[in-house]
Design goal:
The protein is α/β, with parallel strands linked by helices and 307 residues long. The protein folds into three domains: 45-82; 90-153, Ubiquitin-like (UB roll) (Roll); 156-304, Cell division protein FtsQ/DivIB (Rossmann fold, 3-Layer(aba) Sandwich). It contains seven helices and twelve strands. The protein has a nine-stranded mixed β-sheet with strand order 6-5-4-7-8-9-10-11-12. A three-stranded mixed β-sheet has the order 1-3-2, covered by helices on one side. The longest helix is centred in the first third of the chain and has 41 residues, at 42-82. The chain is elongated, with a radius of gyration of 43 Å. 20% of the residues are buried.
Length: 307
């Protein structure tokens, strides 16, 4: 055979790697084909069927065990809930002063026959907190037979004069501004009175802070409740709310009005303390006709009775 000049002759050993690669690829294709045949054969189908049956049996067995455990637990709970093992032998009530122990227990439906295991503490808490003087309730079970009820009552800060169909009605207001309980003749009256048409329209259980003037009144009374010697809460007789003039404060020992306005309650309260302190030192409080904390920007008017 004629070979062009310059063409090199391929040796036998130069083609050996390519032959080995071809042989390896052919062997690999044969192995894969045989495995695919085995997987799709009758034996493989039988093995898969057997594995599925075994898995199904395990699932069914697990469900049966779970059902038996649930039934056993429910039966045990039912028996214990009906037995005397966890029946209450002691009921303790803590934190109450205005609401009596008997009122709290009756409101919660609690007695010495109650079973602590079957007791729905959430429902009991919801019933007790309906008492007008109760603000918060905590219920703890002391196993095996003691139930402890701890309450926190509303703390009165003021009285509000509400307008009712039968006439006016005094209601207690706490420091959050909640109207929580009606006043009765046997209870203390030594609190400031909130008055005004806008506040008189409130209903029992409502929150004064839902009203802009109510927010200012609650803030002012909370500042006085901090115990300042010049202007403590006990020195405030009335806080009247006027849509035109804002808050008007009257003191217990002095009849003159103090016009606080409609804004900057905290700043004006502290300024009022300074004004009253100076008047007390100079013994001129009896001569005062009115004090206007909102007289003008950065100005306070202290008017004497003779002017």
């Amino acid at each position: 055979m004629y070979k062009p000049p310059g063409m090199k002759k391929k040796g036998r050993f130069r083609t050996l790697p390519s032959r080995l690669a071809a042989w390896s690829a052919e062997r690999l294709r044969g192995i894969i084909s045989r495995r695919k045949g085995k997987r799709s054969g009758p034996l493989a189908k039988q093995q898969r069927s057997w594995q599925l049956q075994k898995m199904t049996q395990k699932v069914v067995l697990g469900l049966l065990v779970l059902a038996l455990l649930s039934c056993g637990g429910w039966l045990s709970y039912t028996l214990l809930a009906r037995s005397d093992i966890f029946q209450a032998t002691e009921l303790t009530v803590r934190g109450n002063s205005m609401a009596t122990r008997q009122e709290i227990l009756e409101a919660g439906g609690l007695n010495l026959r109650v079973n602590l295991l079957a007791l729905d503490t959430g429902a009991v808490r919801g019933r007790i907190i309906e008492h007008p003087w109760i603000d918060q309730v905590t219920i703890k079970r002391r196993w095996p037979s003691t139930l402890e009820v701890t309450v926190r009552e509303h703390k009165p800060m003021a009285l509000i004069n509400l307008r009712q169909e039968s006439g006016s009605l005094l209601y207690y207001v706490d420091r959050k501004g909640i109207l929580f309980a009606p006043h009765s003749p046997s209870m203390d009256l030594d609190y400031p009175v909130l008055s005004g048409e806008s506040l008189a329209a409130f209903a029992p259980g409502m929150d004064l802070t839902e009203d802009a003037f109510g927010v200012m009144a609650v803030e002012l009374l909370n500042l006085a409740a901090q115990g300042n010697q010049i202007l403590p809460l006990q020195a405030v007789s009335e806080v009247h709310v006027s849509p035109e003039k804002g808050l008007i404060v009257y003191l217990v020992d002095h009849p003159f009005p103090i016009y606080m306005g409609k804004e900057q309650m905290r700043t004006r309260f502290h300024q009022l303390i300074q004004v009253l302190a100076q008047l007390y030192r100079q013994d001129k409080v009896k001569e005062i006709r009115e004090i206007r904390m909102n007289y003008a920007e950065n100005k306070i008017l202290v008017a004497n009775a003779g002017k």
